[in-house]
Please model this.
Amino acid sequence: MASAAAAGDGQFKLSQTSVLKINKGDITQWFIDGSSDAIVNPANQRMLGGGGADGAIHRAAGPELREACFKVPEVQPGVRCPTGEAKITPGFKLPASHVIHTVGPIYDSDKDPKGSLRNAYKNCLTVAKENNIKYIAFPAISCGVFGYPYGEAATVALSTIKEFANDITEVHFVLFSDDIYDVWVKKAKELLQV
Model:
């Protein structure tokens, strides 16, 4: 799907220098330039691959991604990336140059799911800026097996990105399913003046 973005419906201005694009597609195929771009992996705390988008990203990147993740020091036994934090690795066989791994909250068991989800997006953007990433693509963090309701998740995601994306040229959402895509576009129209 390269850098082609859905014109019209899915494009919004975040600031004078930053644009949001909401696309439907496969995040493992997304890239802009292969040097200053990153996809976000909705990882688990071990960072060694899993199901859904996490597993797909690990398969597409090849075994080098798991090796790089394994080298990230554990902050406690079995935890390389606590919920709401973000870590960066190369993209290896992915078209995008980097992967930013973040762990979203499990909606029903997190004490403050909104705060944890906000931190996941904010910390991904912080890590992107620290590594001169100009283009970043997010999935719908925590909306799969972690059970975050789509509308609430979209509101947290979009408001956090609007607040923290100043140094990022383009923020993309690459969403796999029609129902999540539709919710994200609807919320963006409500929250972001076109």
